[in-house]
Amino acid sequence: MFNPLSALLGLFSLDIGIDLGTANTLVAIRNRGIVINEPSWVAINKRTKQVLAIGSEAKEMVGRTPADIVAIRPLRDGVISEFDVTERMLDYFIKKAHASLLLPVPKPRVVVGIPSGVTEVERRAVYDATISAGAREAYLIEEPMAAALGANLPVTEAIGSMMVDVGGGTTEVAVFALGGMVVRRSVRVAGDEMDEDIMNYARQKYSLLIGERMAERIKMTIGSAYPLPEEKTMAMRGRNLITGLPDSVEVSSIEIREALSNSVNAIVEEVRSALDETPPELIADLMEQGITLAGGGALLQGLAERLSEETRMHVYVAEDAMTCVARGAGKVLEDFDAYRRVLALTQRDGYGRR
Prior knowledge:
By secondary structure, the protein is an alpha+beta fold. It is 38% helix and 26% strand. Strands 3-2-1-9-10 form a five-stranded mixed sheet, with helices on both faces. Strands 13-12-11-17-18 form a five-stranded mixed sheet, with helices on both faces. Strands 5-4-6 form a three-stranded antiparallel sheet. The radius of gyration is 21 Å and the shape is flat.
């Protein structure tokens, strides 16, 4: 329904698209592109509940804080686990996006990407947190759809296309045609689980206790889903669980690939299951168009090659894969009326505006 006041405010407001990720939060401003890309971390004083740092500054504190300060991620597996903290983090990012403006502007209209597998209660939590953080209107868009728009896939055309969005907390798989998702699957296995796989491998094989940041660094440097042209090695540092002293072990990309195998296999199986549900006509399209990878997890070395081998289809990583969801949410705001149907798919209980 057309709202003249909202249309008038829309001319002056700084409308925002947000990829509210488990690992990173990205903010895109309408017609300006990505303006914020920071880790989804918040540092809090446990006694006073005061927020001390948000984003990159908070992540630097992980594992280095005194007893009365804790650095947390308020989202787990793509959904809100700490409502108040998420609200304050969103408020911080929305205000930071407005910080470059010299004059005050109306509250923004905000489009937020959410995993396709979340419950209505979890959807409502994201909506309420966005409104509480200062949005004039809040809309939700499922992440695979936003990623597909950000990667410029022909989702509104009568041709099949497929997106695999590997984030921090979830992997989203979807097949699109005529502006809708014909098949959608969501599994809570992604970048975080890969980090845990590496931590468990270090503990079980080397009796070495390593932190999340060390595990993430190893994953990004030598982690892979498919044999590399030239295998690599890296020093893995932590605390020896037997001696209690600092220790360092040289690990190879072959070992880390073995450590990551459970998570990678789960993602491969999800893609295969989605293809199994896809109508034959769309399968024919996908054989021509290929499968697109997006999200931070898509940057895992060899993941495209592994999926290509398993599906016998061309698989490629989208350009600037990590920002696809945020860019897709921003694209919706650039032509809101044209993409309203895409938003309506996630507004099953009728909410979506204040």
